[in-house]
Amino acid sequence: MNTLGLSMILKMGCICTKEHLNINGIKYVVLERLGEGGFSCVDLVENTTTKKKYALKRITCHSIEDQKTAMQEINYYKKLRHPNIIELVDSTFKGSADIVVHATSEAFLVLPYYKRGTLHDYLTLRSFNKNYLDAKDILRIFSEVCEALKFLHDFTPESIAHRDLKTANICLTEHADPILMDLGSCAPAKVQICGAQDAQKLQDLAAERCSMTYRAPELFHVESYCVIDQRVDIWSLGCVLYAMMYFKSPYDIIYERGDSVNLAVISGTVHFPQEAPFSEDIHDLVRYCLVVNPSERPFIDAVIEKTKEVKNKIETIV
């Protein structure tokens, strides 16, 4: 085979490997895979006309129930409009999951692309040299995350809980403003549990959808008769604040050690490094969120007020 022929085959091969998609009349080319989860994957795509880049979330649906869950996520994106919550650019379904064996559909969600990635990515990079964030920057980012949660928790006609708040679900803009993403775990905040069957169902859903090292204690062992509310997010918020100081959730450290996250969470014990460069006031803010008994845990308004107090103290010292 001559060089020209080989060159043509290689070029054709390159063209074939790039997937092209048409979403509601807009053409996109897939550039690379950004990440994969248990229920979906995210690709970096480019609008072939404007050359603008987006994050494309693809959810494979194996049943009608999966389709309903994906549609629910899309609906949450559409109605939850806030500067610190990711917006939905476009969406569509392809195919149809039904009772036919092996029939699947796919949901496509076009979302903004943030070059800086997630808060988790940013903290991982800084962790290599133990390059701690400044306390003022931590509290600024934390305050904005709190405002996004307040919007969810105060939403009418029904309060909404995120239920999977973690550093990997917070993107950062070019100016390091946090953007809450992945609304697939969102649900009505208040859940009345009436019996063992209800309890087991929610516990299984939490194990499936809520990351273990950020999961509230009441979701590890759901009581047969109780009310679960938006304060599951306050626990996760405390873990996020800890991670912004020490690069990981306090329970990531437990998990990596091979110890029981379940037992550690239920005990409510939080260890702060001795060489900590942060004031006890910020540690107290973490403890304020990480209250094991959900009925004693604060609501988001109280956390916002407490955060303002800590910010004022730090600014006064500086």
From TrEMBL:
Primary enzyme class: transferase
Catalytic activity, EC: 2.7.11.1
GO cellular component: Golgi apparatus
Origin superkingdom: Eukaryota
Catalytic activity: L-threonyl-[protein] + ATP = O-phospho-L-threonyl-[protein] + ADP + H(+); L-seryl-[protein] + ATP = O-phospho-L-seryl-[protein] + ADP + H(+)
Entry keywords, A to Z: ATP-binding, Kinase, Nucleotide-binding, Serine/threonine-protein kinase, Transferase
A matching Pfam family: Pkinase
Record's keyword annotation contains Nucleotide-binding: yes
Ranges for domain Protein kinase: 28-310
Alphabetized Gene3D superfamilies for the sequence: Transferase(Phosphotransferase) domain 1
MF annotations from Gene Ontology: ATP binding; protein serine/threonine kinase activity
InterPro entries reported in the protein's UniProt record: Kinase-like_dom_sf, Prot_kinase_dom, Ser/Thr-specific_kinases, Ser/Thr_kinase_AS
Protein name, as recorded: non-specific serine/threonine protein kinase
Source organism (scientific name): Psylliodes chrysocephalus
